[in-house]
Write a structure and sequence with these properties.
Layout lengths: L16 H11 L1 H34 L3 H51 L3 H4 L2 H42 L1 H18 L3 H27 L1 H7 L2 H54 L4 H13 L1 H29 L18 E3 L4 E3 L4 E6 L2 H11 L7 E3 L2 E2 L6 H4 E4 L8 E2 H4 L10 H10 L3 H7 L4 E2 L8 H15 L3 E5 L7 H14 L4 E5 L3 H6 L2 E6 L2 E6 L1 H7 L1 H8 L6
Parallel strand pairs: 3-10, 3-11, 6-9, 9-10
Antiparallel strand pairs: 1-2, 1-4, 4-5, 7-8, 11-12
Helix pairs in contact: 1-11, 2-3, 2-5, 2-10, 3-5, 5-6, 5-7, 5-11, 6-9, 7-9, 7-11, 9-10, 9-11, 15-17, 15-18
Protein name: ABC transporter ATP-binding protein
Keywords: ATP-binding, Membrane, Nucleotide-binding, Transmembrane, Transmembrane helix
GO molecular function: ATP binding
Length: about 575
C-alpha cells in the first residue's frame, strides 16, 4: 500500500464544495488517473466477455470446430485473468484515493482548528466539527473512490453500445436511446436528495452539539435531577434526525427504484429485439447470446453510474461542511501602534452605531446575528470601519485589553475557581474587586457553595449553564476594561437573577463604557441608551420605554407579543 501524505496538505480551494473536491482530485491526480485507467480496463474486460462467448458459440459450437472453440476458450481465460488482476489493482488505487482524501481533509480541519484557536467555538458549533469526523470524511473519500468504478462504467456502456451497433444496429440503437433516458429520469431526482442530505447533516450536527453539552454537564444534571428532562429533549431531537434520515432514504430509494425499473425495461427490450432478430435470421445464435450477455452486463455499469451520482451528491454536501470550517477566519491580530486616551467614543460605520463613553448602551437587534456581527467588529474579532476616539481600531495598540467582548461561547479553564475568574491580562485581581464582580453577576451563591479555591473541571462542566454564564460575566467584570461588550449575558439565568444583574450592572460599570447586546426587557429598561438594529443598521435610538411606544418593530422584537408594564 502506498504511504499516505504526511507533509503539508497544501492550500485548499474553498470557493465552493465542488472546487474543494476537484482540488483534492488534482492533488492526487496520478493515483486518480491510475484508478480510472484500471477501472476502465476492469469494466472493459467484463464488457468483452459476451463478445468472446458469442464468437465461441458461432465459430466453435455451431461450426463444430474444436480448435476454434479451444482458441476462444483460451481468449476467455486470458480475459478473465486480466479482468481479475485489473480489479485487484483498481481496488488498491481506489482505497488509497479514499484514504488520502479523507486523511488530507483531517489534516486541513485539524490545522484550521489550531489556527482558529479560541475563535473556533465562536464561529463553528462543536457538533459541526464532530460530524466532519463521524460521517463527512467517509463521503468525501467515497467521491474519490467512485471515480475509478464510475469511469469504467461510462466507458463500458459506450463500448457495449458500439459492439451492439456493429452486430445489429437495432440492438445498438435500443441501448443508445435507453441509457440517456434512464440518466434523464434520474437527474431531477438528485436535487431533492441533495437538499434532504443537507438538512439531515445539519440536524446531525445540532444533535452532536446537544450530546456534547449533555456529556459535559451530566454531573450537574444529576445533581439537580434534570437528566429526564434533557434526555427527553435529546430523544425529541434524535427523532427529528431519524425523520430527516428517512426522508433521505425515501429520496434515495425513489432514485434507485426508478433506475432499476427503467434498467429492467431496457434489458427486456434488448432481449426481445435480439430474439426476434435471431428468429428472422438477421443475427446469428452467437450474436443473440452476446446480445443477451450485453444486456445482463449493463446492470453492473448502470448501477455503478447511479451509485456514483448518489456518492457525488453526498460528497458535495460533506464538502460544503468542510468548506464552511476552512473558510472561517481567526480573530484579527492586535498589531496597532496608536494609544489614544480613553475613555472615548466608539463608532461602527457599517451599522451607524455610536457608543458614548461612560454610558451603558444596549444593542437590540431584530436578528441576533446582526448584534453578534457588530460586537465582533467593535472588539476587532472581525474587520470593519470602527473608530475609537476618532482613531481607526486597526491602528490602536492593545485593543484586546481596552475593548473586551464577552460571549457565551467563552470557556472556563480548569484550575481553582479563583484562577478561572482571573482575566488573562492586567495581573491578578484583588479579593474585593473579585467579590464586587461576583455580586454584580449574581454569582455569590456559587462561590459560597464551593469556595474560591475549589477545583474547576475543564470548561466548568460541573456547573449548570446559568452558573457558567454568571461566572463568565464575573470574570469579564473583574477585568474592568475601558469598553466591555456583553453578548446575551443573561440568556441562561432566571428572571429574578437577571433583574438583580440588570440593577447592579450600571453602577458597577460607572465611568466605564458598556455595550450589552440583548433583547431582554429587563436589561433594556436599565440601559442609559438603546440602539435598535434591523438588517445590520441602527434604525432607532432612545430609551427603552420610548422605543416601545414609538417603534412597532422594536416592541415586537423585545416583547414577543407580550405586554410589558
Amino acid at each position: 500500500m502506498k504511504r499516505l501524505p504526511v507533509a503539508d496538505p497544501g492550500t485548499p480551494d474553498v470557493r465552493s464544495p465542488a472546487r474543494y473536491l476537484l482540488w483534492l482530485a488534482r492533488l492526487q491526480w496520478r493515483t486518480v488517473l491510475a484508478g480510472a485507467a484500471l477501472g476502465i480496463t476492469w469494466m472493459l474486460g467484463m464488457a468483452l466477455l459476451p463478445a468472446v462467448i458469442g464468437r465461441a458459440v458461432d465459430d466453435g459450437v455451431t461450426a463444430r470446430d474444436a480448435s476454434a472453440l479451444t482458441l476462444w476458450s483460451g481468449v476467455l481465460l486470458a480475459l478473465g485473468a486480466g479482468t481479475a488482476a485489473s480489479a485487484t489493482l483498481r481496488h488498491r488505487m481506489a482505497v488509497y484515493n479514499w484514504l488520502a482524501a479523507a486523511y488530507r481533509t483531517v489534516q486541513l480541519v485539524t490545522r484550521q482548528a489550531t489556527r482558529l484557536g479560541g475563535t473556533l467555538p465562536r464561529r463553528i458549533g462543536a457538533g459541526e466539527v464532530v460530524s466532519i469526523g463521524v460521517s463527512d470524511l467517509d463521503d468525501i473519500g467515497d467521491c474519490l473512490d467512485i471515480l475509478a468504478r464510475g469511469s469504467g462504467a461510462v466507458a463500458a456502456v459506450v463500448v457495449v453500445a458500439a459492439l451492439m451497433l456493429a452486430t445489429s444496429p437495432p440492438l445498438g440503437l435500443v441501448v443508445l436511446v435507453g441509457v440517456p433516458v434512464i440518466l434523464a429520469v434520474g437527474g431531477p431526482m438528485l436535487r431533492p436528495l441533495r437538499e434532504r442530505e443537507e438538512r439531515h447533516r445539519e440536524l446531525v450536527g445540532e444533535l452532536n452539539t446537544r450530546a456534547t453539552d449533555l456529556v459535559a454537564g451530566l454531573r450537574v444534571l444529576r445533581g439537580i435531577g434534570g437528566e429526564a428532562l434533557f434526555a427527553a429533549r435529546y430523544r425529541d431531537e434524535s427523532q427529528r434526525v431519524r425523520r430527516a434520515g428517512v426522508a433521505v432514504a425515501w429520496a434515495d430509494s425513489r432514485l434507485m427504484g426508478a433506475q432499476n425499473l427503467l434498467l429492467g425495461l431496457l434489458l427486456a427490450t434488448v432481449t426481445w429485439v435480439g430474439a426476434r432478430l435471431a428468429a428472422s435470421g438477421a443475427i446469428t445464435v452467437g450474436d443473440l447470446v452476446s446480445g443477451y450477455g450485453y444486456a445482463m452486463f449493463l446492470i453492473a455499469p448502470m448501477k455503478t453510474i447511479g451509485e456514483a451520482a448518489g456518492k457525488l451528491t453526498r460528497g458535495h454536501v460533506a464538502a460544503g461542511r468542510v468548506v464552511r470550517v476552512l473558510r472561517a477566519e481567526p480573530d484579527l491580530p492586535d498589531a496597532g501602534a496608536v494609544v489614544p486616551a480613553g475613555p472615548a467614543e466608539l463608532a461602527d460605520a457599517a451599522s451607524g452605531l455610536v457608543v458614548r463613553p461612560g454610558r451603558l448602551t444596549a444593542l437590540a437587534a431584530a436578528d441576533p446575528r446582526d448584534a453578534q456581527a457588530i460586537a465582533d467588529r467593535l472588539g476587532r474579532h472581525a474587520d470593519g470601519e470602527v473608530s475609537y476616539g476618532g482613531v481607526p481600531l486597526r491602528d490602536i495598540a492593545g485593543v484586546r485589553e481596552r475593548i473586551l467582548v464577552a460571549v457565551n461561547e467563552d470557556s472556563l479553564f480548569s484550575g481553582t475557581l479563583r484562577d478561572a475568574l482571573t482575566p488573562g491580562f492586567g495581573g491578578p485581581v484583588d479579593d474585593a474587586a473579585l467579590q464586587a464582580a461576583l455580586r454584580t453577576a449574581g454569582a455569590e451563591d456559587i462561590v459560597a457553595a464551593v469556595g474560591l479555591d475549589a477545583h474547576v473541571a475543564e470548561a466548568g462542566r460541573e456547573f449548570s449553564g446559568g452558573q457558567r454564564q454568571r461566572l463568565r460575566l464575573a470574570r469579564a467584570l473583574a477585568a474592568d476594561p475601558e469598553v466591555l461588550v456583553l453578548v446575551d449575558p443573561t440568556s441562561a439565568v432566571d428572571a429574578h437573577t437577571e433583574a438583580r444583574i440588570a440593577d447592579r450592572l450600571g453602577a458597577a460599570r460607572a465611568g466605564r463604557t458598556t455595550v450589552v447586546c440583548t433583547t431582554s426587557p429587563l436589561m433594556l429598561d436599565r440601559a442609559d441608551h438603546v440602539a435598535f438594529v434591523v438588517d445590520g443598521v441602527v434604525v432607532a435610538e432612545g430609551h427603552h420605554r420610548d422605543l416601545l411606544a414609538s417603534e412597532p418593530r422594536y416592541a415586537a422584537a423585545v416583547t414577543r407579543g407580550e405586554e410589558i408594564p
